[in-house]
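for the writeup, i need someone to sanity check this before i put it in the appendix. the sequnce is what the collaborator sent (i think, or maybe the updated version? ugh). structure was predicted straight from it, no edits. if anything looks off just tell me and ill rerun, i have time this weekend
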Amino acid sequence: MSGHSKWATTKHQKAAKDKVRGKLFAKLIRQVEVAAREGGGDLSANATLRAMYDKAREASVPLDTIERAVKRGTGELEGVTYESVTYEGYASNGVAVIVECLTDNRNRTTSEVKNIFTRNGGSLAEPGAVAWQFHRKGMIIVDKTAGVDEDELMMAALEAGAEDVADQGDTFDITTAPTDFTAVRDALAEAGVPMASADPTMVATTAVPLTTEAAARNVLRVLDALEDHDDVQNVYANFDIPDEIFQAVSAE
């Protein structure tokens, strides 16, 4: 899980930068629209929409922009129709990768995702090739610099239904079952716990150790390229990088 948490924290930091804010907004708006189309526009009756709505608000997406996305999803406004597509593949060193996309052109996205893997030393795999190595979970990351007491955090999280609270060095990682994610996140928010990120995710059951800077750099290169694609919403991978190597390659 440590590899996932490091990558999730890095993505959160990247998303906070102004230079990628426009791209982040576009991805969040697309997620809101699809959630509304699939489950309706009522936040109280559509948990997925509520999660995407909250995520967009936390990223400072303007309220009127979110509301228009909901209306496009429910058909009240005209808009492009997106479909969910999931790709599976391998980065270098046999690292398994899952890529979740929202696209209005499946053929184009498939071709471009395949090219990203190939250009960066990876390969696209058949459906089901790597999915068995992951479980869907809720993941909440709390940065230790926030000064949260570990015992109090653990008590609040576990009482709300969390499965585990793990010390990952710079962060506390709270894992939940998918059905308990919203309750745990809301309980921590009510307790005043500052969360670096809180998202439904895919957690790997095993991790591939990357023990050299070259190996880590090669894997992170393909993950970065996938993240930068407009249609890609989420990227998950089963790697583990020692802290000193991760810090070295992240600083580049």
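Residues 2-74 form a domain with the Arc Repressor Mutant, subunit A fold (CATH 1.10.10.200). The longest helix spans residues 18-39.
thx in advance!!
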